[in-house]
Input
Amino acid sequence: MKRSIVAIAAFAVLIAACESRQGDDASAPYASRYQPLPGAATLLAGATILTGTGARLENADILLRDGEIVAVGAGLSQEGATVVDATGRWITPGVIDVHSHLGVYPSPGTASHSDGNEATAPVTAEVWAEHSVWPHDPGFVTALAGGVTALQVLPGSANLIGGRGVTLKNVPGRNVQDMKFPGAPHGLKMACGENPKRVYGSRGVAPGTRMGNVAGYRTAWIAAADYKKKMEAAEEGKGEPPLRDLKLETLAGVLSGEILVHNHCYRGDEMSIMLDIAKEFGYKVTAFHHAVEAYKVADLLAENDTCAAMWADWWGFKMEAYDGIRENAALVDLAGACAVIHSDSAVGIQRLNQETAKVIGAAARAGIDIAPERAIQWITSNAAKALGVSELTGTLEPGKMADVVLWSGSPFSVYTRADQVYIDGALAYDRHDPSLNPVTDFTLGTSAAAGGAQ
Output
């Protein structure tokens, strides 16, 4: 019988041995209530392993136990572990998507499900994407089939500052807190360029131009800096604290380094301007998203330790996307900057390995050789870095979360599929045994209505 979200989540709560790894106060409002699924010690043996650290191991094993990676290497002891023969197959860290709208723009795509853009003001830093996430979105399950073990769900890009994003483990949950990645920082979604100036300019209000965009950011950060200063003074006993302001609270969290900035931005010149704004107000841009012209400012990205999260080949659908090239991520990587391949798509998230392969092929045609052990970092360790969780996941190293994908072949072949996906060492997806795979309650309902329930 297929496992529904509610059934799995309820069962997980009863498994006392599955302790949460979150460092947050679990009793705090909106804190993670994530509990790993029950798993058993597992040895995946005889595979080609891409560790996410830049290494490639042949005919090697990986041992998973108690939710963690215990060891990676050749000839590991099989004692007490279920052995999976992975001969001829490949193993990688779990795929991580840094830019998703699953749950806030779920399937089916109806107006009643459109919860990603609070397009009521240019700055809506007070809203949190997690308060819109619908955990029954069937897109979570199809992403799992593509090897995705973690993802960041962001607000849309209608606003200059659209609100907080949330990082999730790709497991079933009754609500978003059951899926919330323990210990992951919030992200702040910002957007530059055409989107906010189009949305608000069409209404005859600011911003209506790119210079209006920049003025809007600076105005918001000035207010946030003042709020932060007053809060700090009050903590030192110098005056009364200001009335709590959810918008300024989020922005002050960025200025304090507690919330990471994820900035939708296409053009190279605008990325440069956004870096200047960050310097003016003393915060860091963690990652530019979409970043179609990142190759033009790759040196600046490296200097500022800012990631570029990119598509393989989306271009030309609006003016700021016209200078896109397929070698973009490869050139960013060659410059020593943090390159990431992202989806921004409920379909693309299922094939981030193939999107990465597109870049490998385009780079090869341009005379740039990108080895698989390097390219895998674009959807694993670099993505984990961009989300502030690289100490926990993103590479196959002892002590890390056992988020692992066993592929049928090279992950960069169009013929390859994810055979098994492990999250915290538990088998979360098995291509050859659909009865083990999660099915959302929404999908079960529609199957029953169609007479196809199992």
Residues 3-449 form a domain with the TIM Barrel fold (CATH 3.20.20.140). Residues 13 and 35 are 7 Å apart (CA to CA).
